[in-house]
Structures are given as structure tokens and as C-alpha cells.
Amino acid sequence: MTPISFVIILIALTGHAAGELFLKRAMDTSNAVGFRSRKFVAPFTAGIVLMTVQFFLGLGLLQRYDLSFIYPFQGLNVILITIAAAVLLREKLTLQLVIGSALISAGIVLVSFS
Amino acid sequence: MATQNKPSGFANPSLHLALSILFVTIYELLLKRGAIDTAHLSDRWAWTGVTGLASPYVWLAILFVILSLITWLHVLRYIPLSLAFPISQVVHVLVPLCSWLFLGESIIDLRWYGIALVSLGLAVVAKPVARLEERL
Questions:
Q1: Ordered DSSP codes for A55-114
Q2: Is B117 part of the contact surface with chain A (CB cutoff 8 Å)?
Q3: Residue ranges per domain, chain A?
Q4: Are B92 and A109 contacting, i.e. CB atoms less than 8 angstroms apart?
Q5: Beta-carbon separation of A68 and B128 below 8 A
Q6: Which of A39, A50, A59, A101 to probe by mutation at the B interface, max B CB count within 10 Å?
Q7: Interchain CB distance below 8 Å, B39 and A59
């Protein structure tokens, strides 16, 4: 893997995590204000843009690496997104969720290293 | 947290979570097929991934991306992200297994252990889900 590929993987990962958080915020807001309010449209647009960017960066990586090698890198996002959702969106974390997420992340990293 | 009363029938968010996972698995395999077919195209723009659009597999994959997004957005309306996202990671078991079955990629021992560890983590995460189901 070249250093540039590594940077692209990092950008794709953080873009994905931020995109998920924006979409979750948007859908939570939609329950209260509906789909026309700027409070929904702004985070929804940000989420869609970030998801689109990470989609094409991921596609570029797929052209150069095996799917079963590249795809699992996204698994690092499990622990990142779980914690970010707790901190930034104030979701309730249970010990089970943290342990489970950590196990999933560890398993995915193991898959990636092989 | 905006977790409303859970709708039943086709609007059931758990059903949408399952559908979303299925669609993600399908689009990942289609994307890889499309990426293989277009890997030889122009070096200059290859890093952006847009050359993949030359393959019909990629367009079909995009359809499944949209379907998975719609079902996922429905999931997000009712299930906390810190719960739904770890569950959605069952794709990390399904995608390597399907890459092995359908794309002929090989899975070495270490990768099988990784898949087992992900499955274990999913089992741990699934417990709070069972409780959530009871509550709803």
C-alpha cells in the first residue's frame, strides 16, 4: 500500500463517520420538524455530500486492491462512530455496546491485516 | 434521543436494518466486479474512482447504494446510531464470505479468525437489541 492510498483510506473513513453522524442528526430532527425545515435539510445535505465523496474514494481504492482487503478498513469506524454518537449525539452507551463494538473493530482489523 | 414508537409490518425498522445489510452486501460485490472491469482505464483520474462509472455493474451497484441508504435512513429514525451501526457491521462477515463464494477471492486463516471475532462482537451487541425489542 502506498502512502497516498493510506491518506485516501483515512479521508474516506472520517468522511464516512462524519456522514453517518450528520444523517442521524438529520433523521432525528425530521421527527420533530419534518422534511422541509432547514434544520433537516442542512445536516441531510452535509451527510449526503460526505457519503458521496467517501463512496468514490472507496471505488478508486477498489480498483487497486481486493475487496476483502480494502472493505474491512471501514470497520475501524465501528468504535469511532459508536463513541462519536455517544459524545456528539448524546446517545446512551452500555458496557455491552462498547465491548461488542471493540470486538467487531478488532475482528475487522484482523481481517484487514491478513 | 428521538426513538419513537416503533412501526410494525413493512415499516418495521428491524426489517429495514436487515434489508439495508443485504443491499450493502450486494452493492459491495457489484462494485468490485465493476472496479475489476474498469481498473485498466485512464491513470489520471483513477484515484477519484469516477472511471468506475464506465461499468454497468457500478451503475447497478449505485442503485443498491440508494436502496440501502433509503432503508438505512428509515432505521436511523427509530434506532440509536450507537446500536444500529455496530449491527450493520455484520456486512464484515457477509462481504468476505461472499467475496470468497462469488468472486473467488481467498480467505487465509488470520482472516477467518477476524471474521469469528466480528461475529462474537455482533453477538455481544445483539443482546441490547433483544432488550430494545422487548421494550418497544
A1: HHHHHHHHTTS-HHHHGGGGGHHHHHHHHHHHHHS-PPP-HHHHHHHHHHHHHHHHHHH-
A2: yes
A3: 3-113
A4: no
A5: no
A6: A59
A7: no
Write the ipTM.
Answer: 0.79
Q: Is B39 on the interface with A (CB under 8 A)?
A: yes
pLDDT (tens place) for every residue of chain B, 136 residues total: 444 567 888 889 999 999 999 999 999 999 888 888 887 776 777 667 777 888 899 999 999 999 999 999 999 999 999 889 999 989 888 988 998 899 888 888 888 898 899 999 999 988 766 666 665 5
Is residue B92 within 8 angstroms of chain A, CB to CB?
yes
Closest Cβ–Cβ partner in A57, A104, A111 for B121:
A104
Burial status of residue B9 (CB atoms within 10 A of its CB: 0-12, 13-18, 19 or more) = exposed
pTM: 0.79
